[in-house]
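Tip: read the tokens left to right.
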């Protein structure tokens, strides 16, 4: 193990809640009696197996630098008592506030608490800080998750996959190695209490999260959280953001910056963290810094769709251009949440461009450095059949090379219900080289990112009253500025978890076109598949397949399904449990139809089986 300023200890503890429930936790802290600040990571992701490998690197490193750091499983998850509640709901936040109070009162605690979280736990950290701002001194949130809608449209990508994972995590039993013979009774109680939050997820709008304490937000370009991170910067002058070339999660490269943040706000040490540029970002090949956000070095450049950008599709007798796309438009979108796999990246967009209406610029006379969220203001004519009241407008911004290669820069969607619309594209950072063309591509479908409109009529747009506003950073903005560096830390050796990959590995991303049926099918298989044997003998075997299908001309044919299996074993004591979950989602003209299935097995025998069906009214389109 690398040498750190402090020697450390690790122990498994329980956090008592006011109602007598105990939350399972793992504590790392410096050796000695001196009170130190405390870091809390509060999540439902099972610290004893699912996050054990990353916990074993990150938390000892923080402890070695003088922090007590606690990883806590939420109520009803892992080895914690109780039954699972709604993720991010009132019970979870109340429990988290009680955990913060308990930590602040420990004899080894200085009373100053920092909150840490990635993904859904990053969102929870922000909400929890707003509940107890007097005790929480700072937050580090990585890739905080928002709602399940994008521009008013319901997400298809990841929604049902996250649902199966959530159900499985809540349904997995406590580990008998940690809780003894009571594991089975507690498991069955958990299973009986489960209720998938389908109605809430489908009905909910886009999430807003309060920022109440100094916050360092970290993300990777391409993650759906980047736009939220930039909004956070614009609203809170104490916030800082670090956005780099990383996949979803908290990157190890960023840990030294988080330590500087903790030291400044929890110890009162002048580390310079609060004086860093508001936004430090990786743009194509280098790190850059912007002292404020919005940045004075970023200005809006406007491209009219009837001037700087042009299309060949304008009819001579009508100034409007019609957009009506086949239902498989969007198959080359790439992963909605990028996990660092090759198949996550969107491929050459020329196929997608062929299914869209495109407006191209002339070759650029100099590089254009895009930083921020482009917007597109449109004048529309909705071409809806009887009963329709809104259309889906999907917009992609691409960089087209001299050889015709079309590289995705960013995209956005909007449910438009009137003639004037503004589509905000996802925040991005990209240098478009000299000689490339900007391409703005419009479609009326973007499957399987969002659900297709029930009405396939599409829309028409008026180029003469439509404009792209591009946030362009001045090419000389960094002249004379101090260089920005992000250096990786020296972490403990990885936990000795042995991975046995499947003998026949499934493709990460497979698309099949059944020409005879006019059907397109996409199957995804995540990198988490395989068998992992932990040092304490626990074996976790996991397999997931996500599938999407749609017929070319039938929007109501769209279907999404995820099959997820998790098996936990302790061969030395004969413990063997399996969870099989499936989530299916489809729609008709007026509703989304969901079926969630769960089977729990012990030693191969079914001990629990249930199916939940939900029929939720759909919002237009």
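Filled-in amino acids:
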């Amino acid at each position: 193990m690398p040498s750190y300023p402090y020697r450390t200890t690790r122990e498994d503890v329980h956090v008592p809640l006011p109602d007598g429930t105990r939350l399972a936790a793992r504590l790392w802290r410096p050796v000695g009696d001196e009170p130190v600040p405390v870091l809390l990571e509060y999540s439902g992701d099972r610290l004893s197996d699912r996050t054990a490998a990353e916990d074993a690197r990150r938390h000892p490193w923080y402890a070695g630098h003088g922090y007590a750091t606690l990883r806590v499983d939420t109520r009803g998850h892992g080895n914690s008592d109780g039954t699972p509640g709604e993720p991010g709901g009132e019970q979870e936040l109340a429990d988290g506030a009680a955990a913060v109070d308990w930590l602040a009162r420990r004899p080894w605690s200085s009373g100053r608490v920092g909150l840490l979280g990635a993904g859904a736990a990053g969102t929870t950290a922000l909400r929890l800080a707003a509940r107890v701002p007097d005790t929480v001194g700072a937050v580090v949130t990585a890739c905080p998750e928002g709602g399940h809608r994008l521009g008013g449209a319901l997400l298809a990508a990841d929604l049902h996959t996250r649902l199966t994972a959530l159900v499985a995590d809540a349904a997995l039993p406590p580990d008998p190695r940690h809780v003894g013979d009571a594991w089975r009774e507690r498991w069955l109680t958990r299973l009986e209490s489960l209720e998938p939050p389908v109605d809430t997820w489908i009905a909910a709008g886009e999430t807003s999260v309060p920022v109440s304490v100094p916050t360092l937000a970290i993300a990777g370009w391409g993650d759906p959280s980047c736009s939220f991170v930039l909004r956070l910067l614009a609203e809170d002058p104490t916030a800082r953001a670090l956005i780099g070339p990383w996949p979803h999660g908290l990157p190890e490269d960023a840990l030294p910056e988080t330590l500087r943040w903790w030291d400044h706000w929890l110890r009162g040490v002048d580390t310079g963290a609060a004086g860093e540029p508001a936004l430090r970002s990786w743009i194509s090949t280098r790190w850059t810094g912007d002292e404020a956000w919005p940045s004075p070095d970023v200005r809006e450049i406007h491209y009219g769709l009837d001037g700087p950008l042009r299309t060949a599709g304008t009819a001579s007798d009508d100034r409007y251009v019609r957009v009506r796309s086949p239902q498989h438009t969007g198959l080359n979108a790439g992963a909605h949440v990028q996990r660092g796999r090759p198949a996550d990246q969107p491929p050459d967009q020329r196929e997608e461009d062929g299914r869209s209406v495109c407006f191209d610029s002339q070759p650029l006379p100099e590089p254009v450095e895009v930083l921020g969220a482009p917007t597109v203001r449109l004048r529309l004519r909705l071409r809806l059949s009887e009963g329709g009241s809104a259309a889906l407008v999907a917009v992609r911004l691409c960089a087209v090379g001299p050889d015709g290669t079309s590289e995705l820069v960013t995209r956005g969607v909007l449910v438009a219900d009137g003639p004037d619309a503004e589509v905000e594209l996802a925040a991005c950072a990209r240098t478009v080289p000299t000689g490339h063309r900007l391409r703005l591509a419009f479609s009326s479908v973007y499957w399987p990112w969002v659900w297709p409109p029930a009405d396939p009529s599409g829309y028409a747009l008026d180029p003469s009253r439509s404009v792209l506003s591009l946030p362009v950073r001045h090419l000389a903005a960094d002249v004379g500025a101090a260089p920005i560096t992000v250096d990786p830390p020296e972490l403990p050796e990885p936990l000795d978890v042995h991975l046995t990959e499947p003998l026949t590995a499934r493709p990460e991303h497979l698309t099949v076109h059944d020409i005879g049926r006019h059907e397109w099918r996409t199957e995804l298989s995540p990198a988490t598949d395989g068998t992992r044997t932990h040092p304490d003998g626990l074996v976790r075997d996991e397999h997931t397949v996500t599938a999407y299908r749609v017929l070319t001309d039938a929007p109501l044919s769209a279907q999404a399904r995820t099959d997820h299996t998790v098996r936990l074993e302790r061969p030395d004591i004969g413990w063997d449990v399996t969870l099989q979950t499936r989530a299916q989602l489809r729609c008709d003209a007026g509703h989304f139809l969901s079926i969630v299935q769960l089977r729990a097995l012990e030693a191969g025998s079914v001990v629990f089986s249930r199916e939940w069906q939900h029929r939720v009214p759909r919002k237009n389109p």
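The radius of gyration is 25 Å. The longest strand covers residues 554-570.
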